[in-house]
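Most newcomers find our protein records easier to grasp once they have seen one. A learned vocabulary of local backbone shapes supplies the integers on the structure line. An example says more than a description, so a record of this kind follows:
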Amino acid sequence: MTTYETTAPAAGPGTAASAPAAPLRTRTHTWEPRPASVPGLAEMSGLEILRAALEGTLPAASMTSTLGFRLTEVGEGRAVFEGDPGDHLLNPMGTVHGGFLATLLDSALGSAVMTRLPAGTTYTTVQLGVHMIRPVLADTPALRCEGTALHVGRTTATAEARITGTHDGKLYAHATTTCAVLRPT
């Protein structure tokens, strides 16, 4: 859960006397940590783990609450996330930082690969190619990121993903990945 709080700024050095100061904002989020040991987790396939997170049986990945996105759909070779841009994600140019989009894409890409992995097998991203198509602003409504696994082999996997606006259907970014598949020894 994420909460926002707005307060009046304190006057101080660097404050323009003639310009009204914008209110200060605070963003707080909470998350449920994944237990150090989850009985039966090693026997679950990647798809089963993601379905359990989607259903709330397992906690969601903690970084999703940190950045403000969530897993919304999962199926064989496919994962969908939605993310909420906001002014807490702005870069110095006043647009949402590309790292937010890259992380959203990487999450959908890796999760799509994960849905095709058997129990006891993990993955890690070894290459991420991201293409930003249009700027995301603080007031841009929610974005949808759909990842699709293209190839999942014994040692490597590839996937592609697209971020589109839930409000306008426009393409905001797309990406590809190569993942190393880490099988139990």
